[in-house]
């Protein structure tokens, strides 16, 4: 099918779908139309967002949403799951092929769910199974109350070492307010205070001293690649399970930009991911595992999950099929190339970047040199049609709410077709906003970390500059709504 006829079909499908929605709750139809207009009309630089294809999006809007299918393929606790079995098998097969993984579990509803499945699989494998064996029990139901209590105590007495939030780790990597920081005794590793880079010797020393059951690698806001072979060596030395959360950079793994030591899948015991960031699929999660952990991961339901979202599993299958096309490798290479262009665009304009640059899809801009908090910068940029998110930087004096950084990512605008020149211009537009923004004051005239004053005319000028780029690189070209 040609691109033009596909666009025509897509336009028809969405227009008709919106009319159906309109007949029930017009405000939702209106908000859906407005969301498309807003996404089309702004520079989306949120590193964790993307634009899924119409095929992926349309796959989610079907009657698979209505089906319960607790269990696994061919082993369901509900009747009439034959079509869900087809969907789940296909999604898992595509995932195994795409990532060269022995085992793929595609049921997690989100990245957090995927990490919960991983944590409890590790506990099942390393704590529950040996305990049951020792006690001669087949499963936990056969344990006496006293044995069950002691197993519960064991579950609650395990250790996790992960990257700290301000160094770029995720909430689920042992951050105290998150369940991962409560169900485990946790310690965190950071980055080198001078360079902002991971120091594997420091991670190894912490691991030797702390002796975690789980070593977590992966990040949400670290603008560099990680050597997962080294992380596995560290895990092996202390008898830990290496869990890699590749939620952010799964697209770069799928596109074979991260290979060898930088590909987590062959090195980690368990790899988790979201499917909606650089991988460009539907919102969801997934767990990949080595054979040793496959049976444990397979128990995600009932361990921590209920019924899978069959419509989303179907969309995962479609997205993975897309990611197996050669064009996805080209896309992934462009994500990384564009991040470099964006970083260069900032550096040539004297901005300070955490780690001094990037070699993945993230650029972390320190805005303190402009006298701003991340919160002020994020708000001023939004006024000009530039959508970013504020982010802590290592050792951030402004904490996780106000922050001193802005995190930028290239996956979404790369999907729109932006290249080197466009990203250089994006850097220029962002610097124009930052250099024309002053910190504001509270109503009482005190210095504020939230309010800001953007010089007259700048928002409009920058939005016009953004519009020029956006119009040349339309989102969902050919998709026309009435
Ligand atoms: N893991 C990492 C590294 C992430 O960056 C995120 C989300 O930002 C998640 C997990 C959680 O994903 P979700 O929002 O789908 O639960």
From TrEMBL:
One of its GO terms (molecular function) is glycine hydroxymethyltransferase activity. Pfam families: SHMT. GO terms for cellular component: cytosol. Its cofactor is pyridoxal 5'-phosphate. It comes from the Bacteria. Pathway: One-carbon metabolism; tetrahydrofolate interconversion; Amino-acid biosynthesis; glycine biosynthesis; glycine from L-serine: step 1/1. Keywords: Amino-acid biosynthesis, Cytoplasm, Methyltransferase, One-carbon metabolism, Pyridoxal phosphate, Transferase. The record marks 276 as: Plays an important role in substrate specificity. (6S)-5,6,7,8-tetrahydrofolate binds at residues 165, 169-171, 291. GO terms for biological process: glycine biosynthetic process from serine; methylation; tetrahydrofolate interconversion. Residues 22-125, 158-430 form the Serine hydroxymethyltransferase-like domain. Its EC number is 2.1.2.1. It catalyses: (6R)-5,10-methylene-5,6,7,8-tetrahydrofolate + glycine + H2O = (6S)-5,6,7,8-tetrahydrofolate + L-serine. It is found in: Cytoplasm. The modification N6-(pyridoxal phosphate)lysine is found at residue 277. Belongs to the SHMT family. PANTHER family: SERINE HYDROXYMETHYLTRANSFERASE, SERINE HYDROXYMETHYLTRANSFERASE 1. Catalyzes the reversible interconversion of serine and glycine with tetrahydrofolate (THF) serving as the one-carbon carrier. This reaction serves as the major source of one-carbon groups required for the biosynthesis of purines, thymidylate, methionine, and other important biomolecules. Also exhibits THF-independent aldolase activity toward beta-hydroxyamino acids, producing glycine and aldehydes, via a retro-aldol mechanism. HAMAP family: SHMT. This is Serine hydroxymethyltransferase. It comes from Nocardioides piscis. The gene is glyA.
């Amino acid at each position: 099918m040609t691109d033009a006829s596909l666009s025509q079909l897509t336009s028809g499908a969405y227009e008709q779908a919106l009319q159906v929605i309109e007949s029930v709750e017009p405000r939702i139809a209106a908000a859906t139309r407005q969301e498309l207009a807003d996404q089309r009309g702004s520079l989306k630089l949120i590193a964790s967002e993307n634009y899924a294809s119409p095929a992926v999006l349309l796959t989610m809007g079907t009657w698979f949403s209505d089906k319960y299918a607790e269990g696994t393929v061919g082993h369901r606790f509900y009747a009439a799951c034959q079509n869900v079995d087809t969907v789940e098998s296909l999604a898992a097969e595509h995932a195994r092929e795409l990532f060269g993984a022995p085992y793929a579990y595609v049921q997690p509803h989100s990245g957090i769910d995927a990490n919960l499945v991983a944590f409890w699989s590790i506990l099942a494998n390393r704590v529950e199974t040996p305990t049951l064996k020792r006690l001669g029990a087949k499963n936990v139901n056969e344990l006496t109350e006293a044995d069950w209590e002691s197993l519960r105590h064991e579950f609650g007495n395990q250790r996790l070492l992960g990257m700290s939030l301000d160094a770029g780790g995720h909430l689920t990597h042992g951050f105290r307010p998150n369940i991962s920081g409560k169900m485990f005794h946790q310690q965190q590793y950071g980055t080198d205070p001078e360079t902002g880079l991971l120091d594997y010797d420091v991670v190894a020393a912490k691991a030797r001293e702390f002796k975690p059951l789980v070593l977590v690698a992966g990040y949400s806001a670290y603008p560099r690649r990680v050597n997962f072979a080294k992380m596995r060596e560290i895990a092996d030395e202390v008898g830990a399970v290496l869990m890699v959360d590749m939620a952010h950079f799964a697209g770069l793994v799928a596109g074979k930009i991260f290979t060898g030591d930088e590909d987590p899948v062959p090195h980690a015991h368990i790899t988790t991911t979201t499917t909606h960031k650089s991988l460009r699929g539907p919102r969801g999660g997934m767990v990949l595992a080595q054979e040793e952990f496959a049976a444990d991961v397979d128990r995600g339901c009932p361990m921590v999950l209920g019924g899978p979202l069959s419509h989303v599993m179907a969309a995962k299958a479609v997205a993975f099929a897309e990611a197996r096309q050669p064009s996805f490798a080209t896309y992934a290479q462009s994500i990384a190339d564009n991040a470099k262009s964006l970083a260069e665009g900032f550096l040539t304009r004297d901005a300070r970047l955490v780690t001094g640059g990037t070699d993945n899809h993230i650029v972390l801009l320190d805005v303190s040199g402009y006298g701003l908090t991340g919160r002020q910068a994020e708000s001023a940029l939004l006024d000009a049609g530039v959508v970013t998110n504020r982010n802590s930087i290592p050792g951030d004096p402004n904490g996780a709410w106000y922050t001193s950084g802005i995190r930028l990512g290239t996956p979404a605008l790369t999907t729109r077709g932006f290249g080197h020149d466009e990203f250089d211009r994006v850097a220029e537009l962002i610097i124009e906003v930052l250099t024309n923004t002053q910190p504001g004051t509270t109503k009482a005239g005190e210095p504020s970390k939230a309010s800001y004053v953007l010089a007259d005319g700048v928002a409009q000028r920058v939005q016009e500059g953004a519009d020029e780029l956006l119009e040349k690189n339309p989102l969902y070209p050919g998709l026309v709504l009435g």
